[in-house]
Amino acid sequence: MIAAADEPVVLERPKEGATTGDALARPTFDAVYAAHFDFVWRSVRRLGVAQSATDDAVQDVFLVVHRKLGSFEGRSSLRTWLFGIVRRVARDHRPRREREHSDDELGTIADSTERAPDERAARNEAARLLDALLQTIDEDKREAFILAELEQFTVPEISEALGVNLNTVYARVRAARQELEQGLARVRAQQQWKGRGYANPHANPHANPNAKTAAKTDDSTHTAQGRQRCAK
Fold first, then answer.
1. The whole model's pTM is what?
2. Distance between CA atoms of 224 and 101, rounded to whole angstroms?
3. How buried is 37 (Cβ within 10 angstroms: 0-12 exposed, 13-18 middle, 19+ buried)?
């Protein structure tokens, strides 16, 4: 999936008499919140925070952003900096032991995809299946996959965001793809065993060329609702 481009971030103009270090334009908090709320929300969810805890986690992320934005020096991209905060907050809000979806539960989600009444519903169910599969792989691989495949970060950006070298990024993304494909294969085998198969192309989030877009399509509705709740 190619993530939607971030909204432009408004920069504060340096004040008169500012020193050279202060003269570097910095984004305003309101601009960062408006431009990156969706990115923060979907990242929190994909990193395993329960839906019931998502709003609190997102608010905690932006509390940290508000407190630390003045120290942001622009040495990395803003999204890379934000993701570092998201990772730490998500760890605090995730259950100590993440609950993994069983193959039966994944099969139930896949069933919903096949029975979806229209393309939009099928895409949403495909996104649910992909998100469920993401919870079956370990944290390091999941983070690398999310940034590379779903958020379209460059490998150097991922390397900086995760604090690992480039080869490690490549290895984690490759391993994540393999594990996701294996998980999907198990679900597919279960479906075939039930005699249903995967007739609907939207049921396979890797075979379907629009599958990664489906993940963002499903997220967009929830992030809009989350934005409204957090704004209250």
1. 0.67
2. 26
3. buried
The pLDDT tens digits for 132-146 are 889 889 999 999 999
Which domains occur in the chain, in start order? 11-93 (1.10.1740.10), 103-231 (1.10.10.10)
Strands (E), the chain: 11-12, 26-27
Distances (CA, A) of 127 to 84, 157, 215: 24, 25, 4
Give the model confidence (pLDDT) of 5-57 as tens digits. 444 444 444 444 444 444 346 789 999 999 999 999 999 999 989 889 999 99
Return d(Cα 227, Cα 232) in angstroms, integer.
9
Give residue for tokens 């649910």. 128
Pick from 110, 73, 104, 67: which is nearest to 89 by CA? 67
Quick check: 43 and 85 in contact, CB under 8 A? no
Rg of the chain over all Cα atoms, to the nearest angstrom: 19
The answer to whether the beta carbons of residues 114 and 87 sit under 8 Å apart is no
| Token pair in block for residue 94 | 């995730």
Residue 5: DSSP 8-state: P
Which helix (H) or strand (E) is 56 found in, with range? helix 51-68
